[in-house]
Design a protein that fits this description.
This protein is of the alpha/beta class. The chain is built from 6 helices and 13 strands. A 6-stranded mixed sheet has the order 2-1-3-6-12-13. It binds ribulose-5-phosphate (5RP). Ribulose-5-phosphate (5RP) binds next to helix 2 and helix 4.
Length: 223
């Protein structure tokens, strides 16, 4: 599986050009891409990265990739990030790595968002395999959980008795639906619940998906 991730990561980094501002995603697949970006910097490319998590920031610093913030850079030329599920319309579930809020903000301000996955992440319908992560504020979070479950899921607090706390100081509920038949509607229903900060549905943000397959990396562009 790591080979497939590496193929996708390397193919995505072929789109990096000297002088670009890059969004740096989070997760094990993106980690491989950030390693490759580090090699470009070593070779003399003048790049600036905007990391989507403290974890990615640490990795990028260790590779001497110059960093900036969303406030400081204008537009982001290209973001490379992973995903947990990708459907045929390039709608995504993200956030099993816990970085969905910053990832979605960086994606929103990116001219191009390349998603890198191995073939196991490609699905017909979102939510059948993985839960949908939802980031919520700590205040009243059990009430927020109950409101989420009214949408038809079982919501589990990530980390249980020792809750996982995001880089933004919030909690995550992993919401398992049987399937998410209407992601746009679900996105808006979840967004309407007070206490929800962000959810892991990424709609209309991915411009390309690169899939690592046994036969090589396959690039798919949004039509
Ligand atoms: C982190 C994410 C990751 O991109 C997603 O979980 C995929 O990770 P991996 O490449 O390790 O499978 O959304 O918040």
């Amino acid at each position: 599986m790591n080979d497939l991730k590496l193929q996708a990561a390397r193919k995505a980094v072929e789109f990096v050009e000297d002088g670009m501002v890059l969004g740096l995603g989070t997760g094990s697949t993106t980690r491989l891409a950030v390693d490759e970006i580090g090699k470009l910097v070593k070779d003399g490319f003048r790049l600036v990265g905007v990391p989507t998590s403290i974890e990615t920031e640490r990795q990028a610093r260790s590779l001497n990739i110059p960093l900036s913030t969303l406030e400081e850079v204008g537009e982001i030329d290209l973001t490379i990030d992973g995903a947990d599920e990708v459907d045929p319309q390039f709608r995504l579930i993200k956030g099993l790595g816990g970085a969905l809020l910053r990832e979605k903000m960086v994606a929103y301000y990116s001219k191009r968002e390349i998603i890198i996955v191995d073939s196991s992440k490609m699905v017909g319908v979102l939510g059948v395999k993985t839960p949908l992560p939802v980031e919520v504020v700590q205040f009243g979070h059990r009430r927020t959980k109950a409101a989420l479950e009214k949408l038809g899921c079982i919501a589990s607090l990530r980390g249980g008795d020792q809750p996982f706390v995001t880089d933004n100081g919030n909690l995550i509920y992993d919401c398992k639906f049987d399937a998410i038949a209407d992601p746009e509607r679900m996105d808006s229903d979840i967004g309407a619940i007070p206490g929800v900060v962000e959810n892991g549905l990424f709609i209309g943000l991915a411009t390309s998906v690169i899939v690592g397959t046994e036969g090589g990396a396959v690039i798919r562009e949004r039509i």
